[in-house]
Amino acid sequence: xxxxxxxxxxxxxxxxxxDPKLKDDRDVIVRLTSSAICGTDLHMIRGTLPxxxxxxxxxxxxxxxxxxxxxxxxxxxxxxxVVIPSTISCGGCSYCxxxxxxxxxxxxxxxxxxxTAFYGGPASTGPFDGLQAEYARIPFANSSLVKLPDGVEDxxxxxxxxxxxxxxxxxxxxxxxxxxxxxxxxxGPVGLFAIxxxxxxxxxxxxxxxxHQDRLEMARAQGAEIINMNEEDPVEAIRELTRGAGADRxxxxxxxxxxxxxxxxxxxxxxxxxxxxxxxxxxTNRKGDLWKPGxxxxxxxxxxxxxxAKAGTISVIGxxxxxxxxxxxxxxxxxxxxxxxxxxxxxxxxxHLVDMVESGAFDPRGVITQDEPLTDAISAYKTFDQRKSxxxxxxxxxxx
Length: 400
Fold this sequence. Notes:
Blueprint: E1 2-8, E2 11-16, E3 28-37, H1 39-46, E4 62-69, E5 81-84, H2 94-97, E6 135-138, H3 141-144, E7 146-147, H4 154-157, H5 163-173, E8 181-185, H6 189-200, E9 205-210, H7 213-221, E10 225-228, H8 234-241, E11 247-252, H9 265-268, H10 274-284, H11 299-307, E12 308-316, H12 329-333, E13 338-341, H13 346-359, E14 370-373, H14 377-385, E15 394-397
Parallel strand pairs: 8-9, 8-11, 9-10, 11-12, 12-13, 14-15
Antiparallel strand pairs: 1-2, 3-4, 3-6, 3-15, 4-5, 5-7
C-alpha cells in the first residue's frame, strides 16, 4: 500500500509499504477513505517532538471502512464506517472508564507511565503506524472506534477524529461558565474549534489571537473578536477589551512551534538570549532553517499567564514535548491561576460531537481549505509547513 513514511527530521516520503496485519484478537484493519495533515505532524518532522522511529507511517486522523475483524471484536463487522480517535484507548482500565482515555493504562506498549499512545507518533507513544495510508491496523477496536451514521460524510467526519474533539476538550478543561470572556491563542484548526466550543459551552465573548489574517478572518466568521499579534500587543489588547481585568479563561492552542510576532509592539520583547537559542537548538534537535532565533516556544504560555484574569483558568492543549522545562510559575501563582492541560480524551467526546454534526447543530467543514490526494501529500506538507496564506486544514484522500 501507499503511505507517508518518516525517514528523519525534514525527510518524509511517499513509500510503498506492506499492508497491515492483525496482531491481536482485538484488532481490526480499516481501509482509510479520509485522512489529514495536522500541526502535530509538523512537530515530528521538525524535530520538536523527538524520538521518531525511522519507517513509522505518519498521521493520526482517519475515517474509513472496516475490512478485517479480529476474533475478539464483537461489535464491528466488515463494511462498517468508522471514525478513528487519534489517541488510543483500551476502554477497560480505570482511566478509560473515568473518561481519561488519553491516559489509558494498557494502550501504550511502553508501560503505564509512558503516557499517551497515538498513531504516527514517536517511539515513546508506541509507536503505532499512522493513518496517512491506504490501510491501518486499529488496536482495541471494540472500544476505541466510533460508528459513523450515513448522514455524516467523510469531509465532516475527518474533523471529528482529532481537531474538533481537541478544541472541545480545551474548552471543557478551561472551565468556561456562562457569560465568560475567553481568549484563544492560535487560530489554526484546533484553535478555531476551541473558539466554536467555547461558544457552545456558554462563553459570552471570545477574543482570538493570531498573526495570520486569513486565520483571523476564519475566527471572526465564528463570532470571535480578533487580535493580530503583528499589529498590536495581544496582552494589552485583551486587557483593554476587558477593562483591565484580563480574560476569565485562556486557551493555549499553539504549543511548542509558536511563531514570534513579526512586527508591532510585541515583537520587541520576544528576542531570545544566546543561551536560550543554544538550549532550544540542542533539546529539540532542530536543523538548518527549521528554527530561527526570534521564534519563542514559550510565547503563547507567557501571554496566557499575562492575559488571564486573577483567579482565572488557563487551558493548555497546544503540544509541548516532554523535554520542555519552562513555565512562568511565579507569575501564575501570584494571580491564583488554575492551569489545566493535557492530551485530548478523544474517545470521550467524539460520540457527542458526531451527534451534533448529524443533527445539523454544527457543520465543521468550514475549516477545510485543501483537499488533496495522498499521492500529493509531500508537496502539501511543504506548503502547510510554510504557513502559506489560505492553508489552514489539509484533508488527504488515501483512496484517490
